[in-house]
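Table S2 (continued). Query chain:
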Amino acid sequence: MLVVLAFIIIFHITSIALLFISTIDNAWWVGNNFYLDIWKNCRNTTTNTACSEIGDDNNSFQAIQTIQATMILSTILCCIGLLSFVLQLFRLKQGERFVFTAIIQMLSCLCVMIAASIYTAMHDEFHQKLGLGEGSFGYSFVLAWIAFAFTLINSIMYLILRKRK
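Corresponding output:
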């Protein structure tokens, strides 16, 4: 049982790391001379890199603010889930354990899914309004979808684990 608990803790910490990286790092959409995330748009020139924030001056970027909020909420919920897991491990009786943690992880999963889905649906519109050229989804976007899968699997593991001794 200790091996299973250690594996779940490592899996949960990995989920948190993936969420932090995908939320913070600047690589949701990348091209030859630019990179874009949910916070800023950076253009590379031969001498320097010029970055500008996204969404403050234009009402059409309300979807970006939704993506920002749901990614932050997902990261916070995942951290709270780890904390509640540790607290519930020693405090609750068998059968009652980890239900709250599973619900928190499921909410985290839902938030990251909403953010990545909105970005997937709206990325063409964002790029046209920002005047960006051809590019592809970056590793932060891919990590967001991987974090979605990890948080979903983690929430299911907590539900299964609640009955174990």
